[in-house]
Design a protein that fits this description.
315 residues, alpha+beta, 8-stranded antiparallel beta sheet, 4-stranded mixed beta sheet, 16 strands, 26% helix
Length: 315
């Protein structure tokens, strides 16, 4: 029975991953305000990656005044008598965006490739004083706190390396989207604890960090592969998305409970094995590109529908 359950989760994760590279341009727009959802509906999630961007640079998800913080979906924020274009500002900082379609109340693995993360990471090495790569999840005017997924700055993040995986909870109240929250596995117990040089960690802050981070990271030097042949556990970050709350019919979501019930080894090993299997059959993927028209963000990639069908068969 365990194998059957894992197979179901594997298909959901495969589809979530492939939606980034197989979706047609403009199919997934994370800047629209979401509709009320039921179990089984599709839900679009955006991820924004900031090279050399710290959690302080990102600031809070919601400002003290109640206004939304930095968010690529916001182009006209009124501030101190002027108008701020968050999208333009983030784009000028080198922030890159990806979108994913996930099925409500399933587990899904959101992941970009090593090549794509390297394309974001590489230009800051030896140039920027802050060698970190941070990420937020966003949908409409709602976004998460920022987290680090790569660091070469022990003074800032404690440990260094490439974060192996994190868990993102997507919350709803009777089908109405209620926001994002992060869930970490323990206190880096799998990699030596909070004092380990493989534990990327942050502290709580009322201003910009409502949930502290403690994530095991693979050493930057341990990933020497190229292209899609890379191990997911050491070369790029997998964000495992799950749902909590209830749908429009009042049914309680269970996928977040599954994440909480599983230990770190079982869930991270399972998703890593799945993504490694998929990477062997996917065609080459070029670095994700972003276009913007108003508040619409479109993604283009080079994978085909044939690859999608082949991946489903493999899963």
């Amino acid at each position: 029975m365990a194998v059957s359950r894992n197979l179901t989760l594997g298909i959901a994760a495969a589809l979530a991953y492939l939606s980034l590279v197989a979706g047609q341009s403009g199919t997934y727009n994370p800047c629209t305000e979401p509709n009320v959802v039921n179990k089984g509906d599709g839900f679009v999630v955006g991820l924004a990656y900031w090279p050399a961007g710290t959690i302080v640079n990102w600031g809070p998800a919601v400002n003290a005044s109640g206004a939304p913080g930095l968010n690529p979906c916001i182009t006209g924020m009124q501030w101190e008598g002027g108008t701020l274009n968050y999208l333009s500002y983030l784009s000028n900082q080198g922030v890159t965006f990806s979108t994913f379609m996930v099925t409500v109340d399933t587990l899904a693995a959101l992941r970009t490739t090593k090549a794509e993360e390297d394309a974001i990471w590489g230009p800051i090495l030896g140039v920027q004083q802050t060698e970190v790569l941070s990420v937020i999840a966003f949908r409409g005017q709602n976004r998460s706190d920022a987290k680090y997924i790569r660091s070469n700055m022990a003074a800032l993040t404690g440990g260094t390396g490439i974060v192996e995986q994190m868990s993102l909870f997507i919350g709803f109240n009777r089908g109405v989207f209620a926001g994002f929250s992060w869930w970490d596995f323990g206190q880096c117990t799998a990699c030596g604890g909070l004092v380990s040089d493989q534990c990327i960690r942050t502290s709580l802050s009322d201003s910009y960090q409502l949930t502290a981070q403690a994530s095991c990271a693979a050493p930057l030097s341990s990933c020497t592969c190229r292209g899609l042949s890379c191990s997911t556990s050491t070369c790029s970050t997998t964000i495992i998305a799950a749902f909590q709350g209830s749908d429009a019919s009042g049914r309680t979501f269970t996928s977040a409970f599954k994440i909480q019930a599983l230990n770190k080894y079982s869930i991270s090993d399972f998703f890593s094995q799945l993504m490694d299997k998929l990477s062997g059959i996917l065609p080459g993927i070029s670095t994700t590109t972003v276009s913007s028209s108003g508040s619409t963000i479109s993604i283009s990639g080079s994978a085909t529908e044939a690859a999608l069908q082949q991946a489903q068969s493999a899963a």
